[in-house]
Amino acid sequence: MLDIIIVLVVKLRQNRNHGEPYKNQSSAVVFILLGFSDYPELQVPLFLLFLSIYAVSVTGNVGMIVVIKINPKLHTPMYFFLKHLSFVDFCYSTIVIPKLLETLVVEDRSISIKACITQFSFGVTCVMTEMVMLAVMAYDRFVAICYPLLYTVSMSPTCCALLVTVAYSWGIISSIVLIYSILILSFCETKLINNFVCEYSVFLSASCSDIHFSEIILFIFVNLNSFCTLFIILISYLFISVTILKMHSASGRYKAFSTCASHLTAVTIFYGTIFFLYCIPNSQNSRLAVKVGSVFYTVVIPMLNPLIYSLRNNDVKETFRRIMDLKIISR
Questions:
Q1: Which listed CATH number (1.20.1070.10, 3.90.78.10, 2.40.50.100, 3.30.565.10) goes with 2-330?
Q2: Beta partners for 56?
Q3: What is the pLDDT of residues 294-310, one digit of tens each?
């Protein structure tokens, strides 16, 4: 798909220039991801740390998918969405962490512009999909708590499949639009990137052409996605809170709140990190803070989500125990 988009952009440029071939040096440009090269004494400890996080992330997310699939008690809309959230987190960590580990052990930290765009495109797809998925899960909790008698009808298998399809589709559409806004830029020289992942700011800072249009596209899509999904989540939890406060039974209030606690924790961490990165000023002194925030956003959160949802759920923990018991018996 990426190759097709590149070809289309080149043809559009040729047409715009009345059939003359578009000339720039973008195809030969490479980026050098500095990563954590400023701290050579931490290369090995960071490698071991990120490798451990990646192992936990893969095990947790794949384990969550397997647990939900084999336990009939978890064949509900909430866990259907959680299964897809785990899949997105698994994909995202696999896109980012292997390259991060590579930059910690090799001297050549260069990455071609095509490889950088490819990493960025898959990363954007995962992030945008996760945002929509978190909003969908908030809506699911809203229907379950506020309209329990209509829950089975409102969250039918067809409706759940449609909501998941919308989440993935929006992630792909957002990725395609942002990739196009990058491909219309020109890159004329090798660029040192003081980060470990290919983010949008990397392409803007490395471009030697006008970036105004690309900045507008970024502003529209990022803010539209962030604030719309967050608005849905906040409205859902506003109605959920009102409904819980109206309950006369303390045990009923506790049960209703406990079903939302894991999701609310995941949402707080996810959006809290995003807005933290938004609020960091663009200065030399903020580079370390940006890297730490990016690590938390791209590496830690995909690991935390399965832990957050599994530690508070007895059915999930019981299924994990059964799987471990079966492995011990088989030995």
A1: 1.20.1070.10
A2: none
A3: 788 888 888 888 888 87
